[in-house]
Write a structure and sequence with these properties.
The chain is α/β, with parallel strands linked by helices and 119 residues long. 25% of the residues lie in helices and 36% in strands. It is built from 3 helices and 6 strands, in the order αβββαββαβ. It has a 6-stranded mixed beta sheet. The longest helix is centred in the middle third of the chain and has 13 residues. It is globular. It starts with a helix and ends in a 5-residue tail after the last strand. The relative contact order is 0.21.
Length: 119
């Protein structure tokens, strides 16, 4: 049951364009392997806002999660580019290489880059 719920969790949910905060979240179900997902939204004032909403949504399906870190995304759909950078003051820097791989799977026709510089 937990494995089934986990398989229905999208790997990536980000806004369609703009510059916004993101978090890398490890999702777990009882007796199921963990899965890392990316969530990024412009409505969030803080990285914790995204994480808290994600945790609430997952809990409704019997899943738990932990935040692995955060950063920022610059999503430019007209150029088919996403740049991953920065860090979260509260959660620390996410592993941007992991985030980039998740984004490449979701956006295979995009140029996706990352850097540890910037905020």
């Amino acid at each position: 049951m937990a494995g089934e719920a986990l398989s229905r969790v999208p790997d990536v949910q980000i806004d369609g364009d703009g510059v916004f905060k993101y978090v890398l979240v490890r999702v777990r179900g009882a007796g199921a392997p963990a899965k890392d997902v990316v969530r990024g939204h412009g409505w969030a004032e803080y990285h914790a806002d995204i994480f808290e909403r994600t945790a609430e949504e997952l809990a409704r399906h019997g899943l738990s999660c932990e935040c692995l870190g955060g950063g920022r995304l610059s999503h430019r759909p007209e150029e088919r580019k996403i740049h991953v950078y920065g860090y979260s003051v509260g959660f620390g820097r996410a592993d941007h290489a992991v985030t980039t791989e998740k984004l490449k799977a979701e956006y295979p026709d995009y140029e996706i880059t990352w850097a540890d510089e910037g905020y």
